[in-house]
């Protein structure tokens, strides 16, 4: 074990797992309790457009995914605030358009390496020092956001109309929540990939809700579960030479099944 931990890529992967767990614990919980998993899925797939554009112009795919994700989050927030009755149709269109833009730009992009696969299915061994810094900054913002607006977020999760009655400015809070969700999705994409990102953001929360009594406890427990899933999944992928994202998600799915059986 000590020999494995001496490798820089393993150290980066484990640090990335810790930072990812913080993001999953805070933003993943807010995604679930506010029932915006579908919205987050739309944002996640829209980021593919940013990845395609980044490959075409030759800059960081993570930056492209982040910019595109934030833009999709802001657009989604305004749609859901202004036109709730048709929101599902419009959000589905954002999902498809983002993916289509990504595919077209990749069609015209110069030949690219297998790096694209790391954004589709994740690669913990590809995490760099710059990635860790980006993860840390997003985590810091997420934790401060949850701490400062805890009571308002609790009211928003309970009922948006109730939150308005209590004097909460729902619109800016909603926009900020979706923007942070998009940034957390970008972090998770680097680890488990675009195809499985929502599983890592939601499964730990689903398990944590069975044991937590408050929103704060859910933050902590889901973060712990996400960390365990990421670390165990990484070592499974390392020893059996399989994709880390798939190993993490399948281990998380097994844990959720065991948790469901135990609670019943």
Main beta sheet: none
CATH architectural label:
Orthogonal Bundle
Average residue-wise pLDDT: 87
Shape: globular
CATH superfamily membership, which one?
ABC transporter involved in vitamin B12 uptake, BtuC
What would you say this structure looks like, in words?
The protein is an all-alpha fold and 264 residues long. It has one domain (2-263): ABC transporter involved in vitamin B12 uptake, BtuC (Orthogonal Bundle), CATH 1.10.3470. It has 13 helices and no strands. It has helices at residues 2-5, 8-33, 37-57, 61-82, 87-108, 115-121, 129-148, 150-158, 160-165, 170-192, 197-208, 215-240, 244-263. It is globular, with a radius of gyration of 18 Å. The relative contact order is 0.17. The mean pLDDT is 87.
Descriptive key words:
mainly alpha, ABC transporter involved in vitamin B12 uptake, BtuC, 264 residues, 13 helices, single chain
In brief:
This protein has 264 residues and is an all-alpha fold.
Secondary structure elements and pairings:
Layout: H1 2-5, H2 8-33, H3 37-57, H4 61-82, H5 87-108, H6 115-121, H7 129-148, H8 150-158, H9 160-165, H10 170-192, H11 197-208, H12 215-240, H13 244-263
């Amino acid at each position: 074990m000590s020999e494995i931990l001496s490798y820089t890529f393993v150290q980066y992967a484990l640090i990335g797992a810790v930072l990812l767990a913080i993001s999953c614990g805070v933003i993943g919980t807010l995604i679930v309790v506010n029932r915006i998993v579908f919205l987050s899925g739309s944002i996640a797939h829209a980021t593919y457009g940013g990845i395609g554009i980044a490959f075409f112009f030759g800059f960081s795919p993570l930056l492209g995914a982040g910019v595109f994700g934030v833009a999709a989050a802001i657009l989604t927030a305004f749609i859901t605030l202004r036109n709730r009755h048709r929101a599902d149709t419009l959000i589905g269109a954002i999902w498809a358009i983002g993916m289509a833009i990504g595919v077209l730009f990749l069609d015209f992009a110069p030949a690219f390496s297998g790096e694209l696969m790391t954004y589709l299915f994740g690669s913990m061994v590809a995490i760099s020092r710059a990635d860790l810094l980006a993860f840390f900054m997003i985590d810091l913002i997420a934790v401060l956001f949850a701490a400062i607006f805890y009571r308002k977020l609790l009211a928003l999760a309970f009922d948006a109309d109730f939150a308005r009655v209590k004097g909460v400015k729902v619109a800016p809070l909603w926009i900020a929540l979706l923007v942070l969700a998009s940034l957390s999705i970008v972090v998770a994409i680097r680890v488990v990939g675009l195809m499985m990102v929502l599983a890592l953001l939601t499964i730990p929360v689903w398990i944590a809700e069975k044991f937590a009594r408050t929103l704060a406890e859910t933050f902590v427990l889901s973060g712990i579960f996400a960390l365990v899933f990421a670390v165990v999944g990484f070592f499974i992928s390392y020893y059996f030479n399989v994709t880390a994202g798939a190993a993490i998600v399948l281990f998380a799915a097994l844990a959720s099944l065991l948790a469901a059986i135990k609670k019943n």
